[in-house]
Write a structure and sequence with these properties.
Keywords: Dioxygenase, FAD, Flavoprotein, Oxidoreductase
CATH class of the largest domain: Alpha Beta
Cofactor: FAD
Largest sheet: 5 strands, parallel
Number of helices: 10
InterPro entries: FAD-oxidoreductase/Apoptosis, FAD/NAD-bd_sf, FAD/NAD-binding_dom, FAD/NAD-linked_Rdtase_dimer_sf, Reductase_C
GO cellular component, one term: cytoplasm
GO molecular function: dioxygenase activity; oxidoreductase activity, acting on NAD(P)H
Strand order of the largest sheet: 3-2-1-7-19
Strand content: 25-35%
């Protein structure tokens, strides 16, 4: 009987194994996770869970019993130490497992601050795993002073939660503006104003020189020469693909684990999906870090492991919750040269264009226009920027 092993028990790994069973695969499935909890949602970790609004069990993507019911062997707290491609085996906790096909859904890893500048001090946190957020939550209390290093979505979400919990919050961003890598100046401006109104000190064009303290962080010296007192630090300076296991196995890497359009790696018996994998896109290569990609790509790989031969064409969407604002993003804004602004009451949306082509939409508390924009992008339709900006435009009619 065929045996499929999946390494990485996150959103992609859970989706892939469930899809295998739903698609009729009746062989053996083993899902291996380094953490000691079942696959869980990561986005709520730094929001509802950290705020105490969601219990740990509600984070789980599926009840643990689901895996037993579907005859999926779930091995938790057991990191894989090596892959032997010539023997088609993996080693986990000293045990050797055989596979017929292997899927790598090894996710991504947060970037840490170097120990040489204080990154190893107590009170310095990253936001990735359940353990990370549990440790962070233990340090957060009203009146404490938090430094957020990095003004991307992870950093700003952490800032919003810390502010809501009553901490004094400073965000530093080395680039000229927050969200510079991922969003237009208009979106940056919207969230700068939002955080400032909630008492967050946003410092742009300022980096971290080093953290101060003997064993626990007590301060920070910034690149502009200023020094601030802090009780905890949350580091949100990006993630790197979890490709170390693949690299050690000799698989081809290219901004993560390189796959073809079907999700197959340089080894015909090994596949990859989710944050760890890059794939062909519009004549180039891309790697997406999102729930949507983890689910859609993993499910496609599951079908292709059974011989479907489908190519992956992503339909990207993302979201971010900050205070009472829900940001919803459809599409990818890479290469945009024009922004159309649509303002409806308290709702706001920014529409990204490259020439006359609609690429992406950022919608703030505007689910209706987000959904219209998403459907337009997926259908390859591009209403003119002037039409989008006109407050009298019947946006729903653009879908016809």
């Amino acid at each position: 009987m065929s045996h499929i092993v999946v390494i990485g028990a996150g959103q992609a790994g859970s989706s892939l194994t469930a899809k295998l069973r739903n698609s009729g695969f009746d062989g053996d499935i083993t899902l291996i996770g380094a953490e000691d909890v079942p696959p869980y949602q990561r986005p709520p970790l730094s929001k509802a869970y950290l705020l105490g609004e969601m219990e740990k069990e509600r984070l789980f993507l599926r009840p643990e019993q689901f895996y037993a019911d579907q005859n999926i062997k779930l091995r938790l707290g057991a990191p894989v130490t090596s892959i032997n491609r010539s023997a088609n085996t993996v080693t986990v906790n000293g045990e050797i497992l055989n596979y017929d096909q292997l899927a790598l859904t090894t996710g991504s890893n947060p970037r840490h601050l170097p120990a040489s500048i204080g990154g190893a001090l107590h009170g310095v946190h990253v936001v990735r795993s359940l353990d990370d957020v549990d440790a962070m939550g233990a340090d957060m209390a009203p009146g404490k002073r938090a430094l957020i290093v990095g003004g991307g979505y992870i950093g700003l979400e952490a800032a919003a939660v810390a502010s809501k919990m009553g901490l004094e919050v400073t965000v530093i961003e080395m680039a000229d503006r927050i969200l510079q890598r991922v969003a237009a100046p208009e979106t940056s401006g919207y969230f700068r104003k939002l955080h400032t109104e909630h008492g967050v000190d946003i410092r742009e064009g300022v980096g971290l020189d080093r953290l101060l303290g003997e064993t626990h962080v007590s301060g920070a010296r910034l690149t502009d020469g200023s020094q601030i007192h802090v009780d905890l630090v949350i580091v949100g300076v990006g993630i790197t693909p979890g490709d170390a296991l693949a690299a050690n196995a000799g698989l081809t890497l290219n901004n993560g684990i390189e796959t073809d359009a079907h999700g197959r790696t340089s080894d015909p018996n090994i596949w990859a999906a989710g944050d760890c994998a890059s794939f062909p896109w519009q004549g180039g290569r891309i790697r997406l870090e999102s729930v949507q990609n983890a689910i859609d790509q993993a499910e496609l790989v599951a079908e292709n492991m059974m011989g479907a031969g489908k190519e992956y064409v992503p339909m990207p969407w993302f979201w971010s919750d900050q205070y009472d604002v829900k940001l919803q993003i459809a599409g990818l804004n890479t290469g945009y040269d024009k922004i159309a602004v649509r303002h409806t009451g308290d709702a706001m949306s920014y529409w990204y264009y490259k020439g006359d082509k609609l690429l992406a939409v950022d919608a703030m508390n505007d689910p209706r226009n987000y959904m219209i924009g998403k459907r337009l992008i997926e259908a390859g339709k591009s209403p003119s920027a002037d039409v989008v900006t006109d407050p009298d435009t019947d946006m729903k009619a653009l879908l016809k």
